[in-house]
Design goal:
Layout (H helix, E strand, L loop, with lengths): L2 H30 L36 E9 L4 E9 L5 E13 L5 E11 L4 E10 L6 E6 L2 E6 L7 E9 L8 E9 L5 E11 L5 E12 L4 E8 L13 E6 L5 H7 E8 L2 E2 L3
Antiparallel strand pairs: 1-2, 2-5, 3-4, 3-6, 3-7, 6-15, 7-14, 8-9, 9-12, 10-11, 10-13
């Protein structure tokens, strides 16, 4: 056997050993490797994205969520140097609400300089239109304008959209017969839902004949049971405008359903999505 033939034989033997080792290594890899799962944080079994799609659960699409809309603003005299604020907002999303809606009110003078600021917090349910009210803000002179800003918050998804069923009826308005007597509004609310609520906030808006808000108020009713009826009473110690339209009074019961465990068990969903500043440029 020539030296060339011996070299060929050695190469052949080496290749055979390499092939055998490769087969054994491959077999051991597939024998002992962890099987792909839908929770391993890898896209390794034909998923559309990591751990979803294909053999795994359907990938959830990031929903298109619209910003909260500001429908109306009003600055209402509430005594010497004091003002109440009304902001009407709308949530156009049918299945998304916000539990912690933090906002700020910036009051501006003629030069656009902030002369006073107030922060607050509210909430908004899916497809809800509601009033945000602030009371007795000491401003001295009436500001030129104010800006309502909603800061960052998280949307929470609902499986269904249904507002708590609290109704208003039996309203009675008592206008003052003489100077110094308060204006009073009485009404009844009833919780016609199947849930008890820790608090029902009832808001009222008086408007003039042109439809502009001229007086606001609110009161809280605590621990309102299912099907329970309560009387709510509102008093204004300041003199209200004479051109109030008694036919256009709005009374709005409001329930923070996020605080009702039973309500959220039925309608709530664990998905949450970040949102950001909503600026009122008006």
């Amino acid at each position: 056997m020539t030296s060339f033939q011996r070299g060929i034989k050695r190469v052949a033997i080496i290749l055979v050993y390499i092939a055998i080792i490769s087969v054994i290594a491959t077999a051991l890899y597939y024998l002992f490797r962890a099987k792909p799962t839908c929770t391993d944080g890898k896209r390794n079994q034909g998923e559309e994205k990591i751990d979803c799609g294909g053999p795994c659960a359907k990938c959830e699409e990031i929903p298109k969520i619209e910003n909260i809309q500001i429908l109306q603003k009003a600055l209402i005299p509430a005594g010497p140097g004091k003002y109440d604020v009304l902001v009407k907002i709308k949530n156009p999303n049918a299945l998304f609400g916000v539990a912690g809606l933090d906002y700020s009110l910036n009051f501006l003078n003629q030069e656009g300089i902030i002369v006073e600021k107030r922060d607050g917090s509210s909430f908004i349910l899916p497809a809800q239109t509601k009033y945000v009210l602030e009371f007795n803000i000491a401003l001295g002179e009436k500001p030129e304008s104010f800006v309502f800003n909603v800061r960052s918050f998280r949307w929470q998804k609902f499986s269904e959209s249904e507002e708590p069923n609290v109704v208003v009826y039996g309203r009675e308005v008592s206008l003052p017969g003489s100077i110094g007597e308060p204006t009073q509004l009485k009404a009844k609310i009833q919780n016609r839902s199947n849930y008890d609520f820790k608090k029902v906030t009832t808001k009222v808006v008086f408007k003039d004949v042109e439809g502009m808000p001229v007086a606001v108020n609110q009161t809280d009713s605590n621990d309102v049971r299912a099907n329970e009826e309560r009387e709510v009473i509102f008093n204004w110690n300041t003199v209200l405008p004479k051109n109030i339209d008694l036919q256009s009074i709005e009374i709005e019961p409001e329930v923070n359903a996020f605080g009702s465990e039973n309500f959220m068990k039925k309608y709530g969903s664990p998905e949450q999505y970040q949102s950001y500043d909503v600026d009122d440029a008006k």
